[in-house]
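Postdoc handover notes: sequence design on the structure in folder B. Input tokens:
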């Protein structure tokens, strides 16, 4: 087997990760010369790396001391990671229960850009092609979790999403913004979403939204499996998901007078 060559650009990414990893509780600030010495890279290279991460607000330079420290975007990223971990911990027992009750795969996903990202999954007794890896991502408009989340975004957020073209994956994929908008309104009213072979032929899923303490949609839970098995249980699974997501949302601090 021939040796695999690194992808173009991975060296810069690796160096950036090394640079950011130097910032710690014990050493929160660094000067340019200190970074050059510690990273064993030339000054120009380190300066270029700093310029990139400074533009992204991952680091910020104090104009008086000329010391670098982690910036607001890194703090926000850490907060998102912490919230995702909290979400996973709260949702895990419900995922296990859903997988046991239905025999199908139960998944927890969040919205990232125009995709949904898998952060936890429990396989049921019926496994189509094995469990997906955490971190796997799919176009939001093709999945029940994605549509469940999109249905509860603000009007401005929905409009922003629908401004761009919707990718085509199967003959059942919704690629019309008007059609998707109409379906999102229906999902919002019903409380759960269905994606019937919109990403992959033979696969159907049902998804329901999860809300935080501010009433914002932050994730979605789904039950997915072979279309031939799920098509007779869509409403029942939608109800089960509604109960599970209501319990998770409640644990995250969400309070509501209606059942969604």
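Designed sequence:
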């Amino acid at each position: 087997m021939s040796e695999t060559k690194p992808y173009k650009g991975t060296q810069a990414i690796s160096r950036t990760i090394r640079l950011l990893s130097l910032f710690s509780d014990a050493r929160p600030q660094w000067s340019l010369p200190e970074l050059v010495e510690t990273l064993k890279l030339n000054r120009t290279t380190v300066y270029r790396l700093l310029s990139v991460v400074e533009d992204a607000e991952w680091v910020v330079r104090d104009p008086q001391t000329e010391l670098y420290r982690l910036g607001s975007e890194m703090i926000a990223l850490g907060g998102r990671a912490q919230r995702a971990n909290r979400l996973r911990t709260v949702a895990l027992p419900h995922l296990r229960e859903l997988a046991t009750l239905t025999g199908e795969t139960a998944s927890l996903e969040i919205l990232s850009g125009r995709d949904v990202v898998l952060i936890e999954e429990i396989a049921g007794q019926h496994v189509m092609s094995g469990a997906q890896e955490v971190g796997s991502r799919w176009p939001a408009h093709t999945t029940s979790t994605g549509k469940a989340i999109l249905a509860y975004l603000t009007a401005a957020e929905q409009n922003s999403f629908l401004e761009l073209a919707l990718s085509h994956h199967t003959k059942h994929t919704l690629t019309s913004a008007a059609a998707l908008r109409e379906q999102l309104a229906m999902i919002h009213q019903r409380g759960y979403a269905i994606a019937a072979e919109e990403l992959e032929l033979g696969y159907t899923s049902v998804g329901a939204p999860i809300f935080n303490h501010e009433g914002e949609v932050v994730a979605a839970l789904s039950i997915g499996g072979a279309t031939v098995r799920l098509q007779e249980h869509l409403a029942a699974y939608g109800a089960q998901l509604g109960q599970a997501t209501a319990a998770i949302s409640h644990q995250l601090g969400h309070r509501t007078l209606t059942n969604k």
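Context for whoever picks this up: The chain is about 45% helix and 20% strand. Don't rerun without checking with the PI first.
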